[in-house]
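Batch job 17 of 40 flagged for manual review because the log was empty.
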Amino acid sequence: MHQIIQLSILPFGMINCFLIKGEIKHILVDTGIPNSEAKIIRQLKKHNIKLEDIGLIIITHGHIDHFGSAKELKDILKVPVLVHDLDIKALQTGKSMVETLKPNNKIWDIILKPKLAKDTASPCLPDIILNDNEEYDLSIYGINGCVIHTPGHTPGSLSIVLENGDAIIMDLASSGILLGGIAFNSRMKHPPFHDNLEQVKKSLENILSLNTERFYLGHGNSVSKKSIISYIDKFLTERSELTQ
C-alpha cells in the first residue's frame, strides 16, 4: 500500500505539497512558494524520509505557490523535474502564468492575484516534459499509478492517480474556509483561480471514472469521492456562477 504524506507549506492546509512513498523511490509532488525548501526537508526528515530515496519531483501546474522552490529542491535532491509542456514557461521564467489567474471570487483579484503576479522564483529547467494527453507511468519508482493531464485550473495541470484509489488533484478543487483547511475541512469550494471551469469539470469527471476514492488538494485537507461529486454539482454545472 502506498502512502501519501501531506507536507505543509503554510499552516492549516493553506498550501500543501505531498510525498508519495514508493517501494523503490519516493516522489515529491509540488514544491510550495519560494524559499520553502528548508521547511519541506525538515518535514521529510520528521517522517524519516531519506533525501537520497526521492527519485522525482512532479510540478502539477504553473502557479508560483506550487513550483516556487523547484530549482532549489532539484539541486538539493539531484532528481529530475516533471511538468506538462503547456505550463513549462512558468518554470523556465520563474513567474506564474498570469493569464490563467481568472478569479473565482472578485476578492482574489484584489488581495491575491497582484502578489502571485509579482512574486518570482528561481528559473528551473524541467527534465521530463509531458505533451498533450500523454501519461507518465510511476511503476519505475515502485508506485502503482500514473501522472495524467487534467487541464482546467491551468492548461497544463497534472494529477497523480494511484491504483489504490488515491488521487492528488491539487487545485482542481479546494476545501475548508478562506485559503485552505483552517476549519470546515469537508466543505468544498473553488480555489482562488481557475483558467477554464468547463475543463475543470471534464478533468474531475475523468478522474472519477478511474475508480478514485480519496482526493488530496493543494489547499485544504483530503476529501472523499462524495465531496468531489458535490463540488461538481454545486460549482461546476453549466452556467454555475464564478462566486462561492
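Reviewer: the log was empty due to a logging misconfiguration, but the result itself is present. The chain has a mean pLDDT of 93. Unflagging and moving on to job 18.
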